Amino acid sequence: RTDIRSLTELASGRIELNKNPVEGFSAGLIDDNDLYRWEVLIIGPPDTLYEGGVFKAHLTFPKDYPLRPPKMKFITEIWHPNVDKNGDVCISILHEPGEDKYGYEKPEERWLPIHTVETIISVISMLADPNGDSPANVDAAKEWREDGNGEFKRKVARCVRKKPRDCFRVTFIQQLVTSFTSGVSN
Q: Which keywords does the record carry (predicted)?
């Protein structure tokens, strides 16, 4: 069942992102007829091991968004403590609302219906500041803690060098759309 509130929230989020683009982040629909599935490109932030990398991910929003969080999955390879080996992102803000059955996270750190698409973009900050206390990828977390400038850095550098094949085309098209919509509103 499609929820009108979720469609409205997602459409508003897309409009806001087009009006106020976020540096290092670009988003578009995977299918123009499906507001619930987005493809995002994240540019590795400056002064991090991920600098210069281009990482493609998919955001899948539930039909009852914003009551429940989206799922985020990297499509391109990324070596990070908070991204499991299948690409699924595991950070507090994307966890179901309520109490953490393991007692690690406070309810206010988890998803709240007041969060917006813009809030989700905070995932970029995890590239600069991984959470090694609650890893999705235990091997990456161990390397990050014990040998951050050795094996971990080498594996991240390998991921940074790999570029998604069609990401530059998507980014270019997104920039054209942003330029066009900015010109129309002026």
A: ATP-binding, Nucleotide-binding, Transferase, Ubl conjugation pathway
Query: What would the pLDDT profile of 96-139 be if each residue is shown by its tens digit?
Result: 888 888 778 888 888 988 888 888 887 788 898 998 888 999 99
**Model pTM score:** 0.82
Q: Which residues pair with 40 in a beta bridge?
A: 27, 57
Cα–Cα distance between 36 and 2 in angstroms, integer? 10
> What are the domain boundaries of the chain?
4-169
Residue 75's φ and ψ, nearest 5 degrees, are -95, -35
The Cα 13–Cα 11 span in angstroms is 5
Q: Which of 54, 90, 117, 124 is catalytic?
A: 90
Mean pLDDT, rounded, of the chain = 85
CATH topology assigned to domain 4-169 = Ubiquitin Conjugating Enzyme (3.10.110)
In this prediction, residue 114 carries a pLDDT of 87
